[in-house]
C-alpha cells in the first residue's frame, strides 16, 4: 500500500467518524468504517463496525452481506450462512445472497445441501433463472 493510499484511508476514517458523530442513528458511517477495516485486514474491528451498523438498522441487508463475506474470509462458513439467511428471510429473491449462500455451501463441501436449497428455491419460484442456471438447467 502506498503513502497516498494510506493518506486517503486515514481521511476516509476521519470523514466516517465525523459522519458517525453527526448522524449516530445512520448505519452508513459504520458500514464505511467496517469496509476500511476489512481493507486493512483488521477483521475484528470490521466485524465490530458491521455489528454496530446492524444495531441501528437491523434489516440493513448490505451489512448482513458484508458480514457474510467477512466470515467467509475468516473461514467461518456457518456464521456466513446465518448472515445470508438473514438477507434471504427478508428478501427470498435476493440474487447476491442466493449466490453467496450456494457458493459458501459448495466451498464447505456441502454439495447435497446446495442442490437441495436450489431445488427449494425453484419449487417456490419456478422462473428463478439464477437458481436454474446454478443447478445446470
Q: What report would you give on this structure?
A:
With 137 residues, this protein is mainly α. It has helices spanning 3-22, 28-39, 43-56, 61-73, 77-90, 95-107, 111-124, 129-135. Helices cover 78% and strands 0% of the residues. The radius of gyration is 17 Å and the shape is elongated. The N and C termini lie far apart (44 Å). The mean pLDDT is 88.
Fraction of residues in helix: over 70%
- Specify the biggest β-sheet: none
Task: Tally the beta strands.
Answer: 0
Q: Averaging pLDDT over every residue, what do you get?
A: 88
In whole angstroms, the N-to-C terminal distance is: 44 Å
| Helix and strand element order | HHHHHHHH
What structural class do the secondary elements suggest?
mainly alpha
Based on CA inertia axes, which overall geometry fits? elongated
**Count of helix runs:** 8
Strand proportion: under 5%
Low-confidence stretches: none
Cα Rg? 17 Å
Please name the defining characteristics of this protein.
137 residues; mainly alpha
Write the layout of secondary structure elements.
Elements: H1 3-22, H2 28-39, H3 43-56, H4 61-73, H5 77-90, H6 95-107, H7 111-124, H8 129-135
Amino acid at each position: 500500500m502506498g503513502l497516498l493510499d494510506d493518506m486517503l484511508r486515514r481521511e476516509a476514517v476521519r470523514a466516517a467518524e465525523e459522519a458517525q458523530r453527526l448522524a449516530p442513528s445512520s448505519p452508513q458511517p459504520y458500514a464505511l468504517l467496517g469496509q476500511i477495516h476489512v481493507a486493512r485486514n483488521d477483521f475484528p474491528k470490521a466485524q465490530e463496525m458491521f455489528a454496530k451498523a446492524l444495531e441501528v438498522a437491523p434489516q440493513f441487508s448490505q451489512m448482513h452481506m458484508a458480514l457474510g463475506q467477512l466470515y467467509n474470509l475468516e473461514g467461518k462458513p456457518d456464521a456466513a450462512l446465518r448472515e445470508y439467511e438473514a438477507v434471504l428471510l427478508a428478501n427470498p429473491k435476493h440474487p447476491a445472497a442466493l449466490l453467496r449462500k450456494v457458493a459458501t455451501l459448495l466451498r464447505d463441501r456441502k454439495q447435497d445441501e446446495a442442490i437441495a436449497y436450489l431445488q427449494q428455491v425453484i419449487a417456490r419460484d419456478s422462473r428463478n433463472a439464477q437458481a436454474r442456471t446454478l443447478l445446470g438447467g
